[in-house]
């Protein structure tokens, strides 16, 4: 009789064990698989409020125009926004005075990168596909055969893609504190390692996951066991003293930036996490080794601006890039952090150098 009870108990334990395994597998699957994005204009999704173009694959790209009318513009610029931002954060336009805009005769269009703001997500996004999106935006808006591109922070990475995949369309290119991929093969191992370990430990792990285990990026940045990306968490340790001052002035002048929520309204995976997987993944090219001068006859120019106290983008790697690509005009700003484009007067000076060569 006792033996029968023992067998029944063993069978019950097996069933309980099986249920626990199923529960754990189900939990694990849900934990590492992000929820579907809330597509703008879809049932339950955010409304469509911006003008949009329809791309070659059926996706939509939202944009916002700044500056003088396109028809009278002397300079036509496409701006690529930073991590966690959107078309409303076109800093090269929003920080320029109306007088400077008219003096330069500049037209600027900012757009929501795929998955941000009101642009449809692109699960197949690559450095090349984003460059082609930019080219298609220029063509559909009628910017002409040549146009300028400029990107800030993570948006600066897109400019490397433009230099690689659509160089014949560029009149000039600007990279403002462009985020660096530590895994570019051209970096000396000791240099990239030193720069990598200057980051907070939590960011070292977040980038390792994005590079080596991209399928875990969503889980890593939403789990509560370990600290995730300090950038996503808006940790102030990523800000330099100058950055802190800039943030205080902006906050006191206008309060919290509600448009930041709009940037990721379709979900963080196809915006923030996709950015991390691409920005720190394996690229189709190495900017140091694989780019050619798009302006061999000096008919245009390529510029990098970098703060020497930037805590997000190591200045030592930016200096290395500039030393290896002789046709890049490198501008290092003393005492500047990562947010220097938001400082008063900086963008006007940068735009004059970028467009006219005036120092």
TrEMBL record:
It comes from the Eukaryota. InterPro entries: AB_hydrolase_1, AB_hydrolase_fold. SUPFAM superfamilies: alpha/beta-Hydrolases (SSF53474). Residues 78-340 form the AB hydrolase-1 domain. Pfam families: Abhydrolase_1. This is AB hydrolase-1 domain-containing protein. It comes from Cannabis sativa (Hemp). The lineage of its organism: Eukaryota, Viridiplantae, Streptophyta, Embryophyta, Tracheophyta. The gene is LOC115705759.
């Amino acid at each position: 009789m006792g033996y029968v009870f023992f067998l029944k108990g063993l069978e019950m334990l097996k069933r309980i064990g099986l249920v626990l395994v199923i529960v754990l597998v189900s939990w694990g699957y849900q934990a590492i698989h992000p929820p579907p994005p809330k597509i703008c204009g879809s049932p339950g999704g955010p409304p469509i409020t911006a003008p949009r173009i329809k791309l070659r694959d059926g996706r939509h790209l939202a944009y916002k125009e700044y500056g003088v009318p396109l028809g009278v513009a002397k300079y036509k610029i496409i701006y690529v926004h930073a991590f966690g931002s959107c078309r409303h954060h076109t800093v090269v336009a929003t920080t320029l005075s109306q007088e400077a805009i008219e003096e330069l005769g500049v037209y600027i269009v900012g757009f929501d990168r795929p998955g941000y703001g009101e642009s449809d997500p692109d699960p197949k996004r690559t450095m090349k596909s984003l460059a082609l999106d930019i080219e298609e935006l220029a063509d559909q808006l009628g910017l002409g055969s040549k146009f300028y591109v400029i990107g800030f922070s993570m948006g600066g990475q897109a400019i490397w893609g433009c230099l690689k995949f659509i160089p014949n369309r560029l009149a000039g290119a600007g990279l403002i504190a462009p985020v660096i991929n530590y895994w570019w093969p051209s970096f000396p191992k000791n240099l990239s390692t030193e720069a990598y370990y200057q980051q907070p430990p939590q960011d070292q792990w977040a980038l390792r996951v994005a590079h080596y285990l991209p399928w875990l990026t969503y889980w890593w940045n939403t789990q509560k066991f370990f600290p995730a990306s300090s950038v996503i968490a808006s940790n102030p340790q990523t800000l330099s003293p100058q950055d802190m001052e800039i943030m205080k002035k902006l906050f006191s002048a206008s309060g919290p930036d509600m448009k930041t929520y709009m940037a990721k309204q379709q979900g963080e995976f196809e915006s923030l996490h996709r950015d991390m997987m691409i920005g720190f993944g394996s690229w189709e090219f190495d900017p140091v080794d694989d780019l050619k001068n798009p302006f061999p006859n000096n008919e245009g120019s390529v510029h990098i601006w970098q703060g020497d106290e930037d805590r997000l983008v190591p200045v030592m790697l930016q200096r290395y890039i500039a030393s290896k690509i002789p046709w890049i005009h490198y501008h290092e700003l003393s005492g500047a952090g990562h947010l220097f484009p938001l400082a008063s007067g900086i963008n006007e000076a940068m735009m004059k150098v970028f467009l006219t060569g005036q120092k």
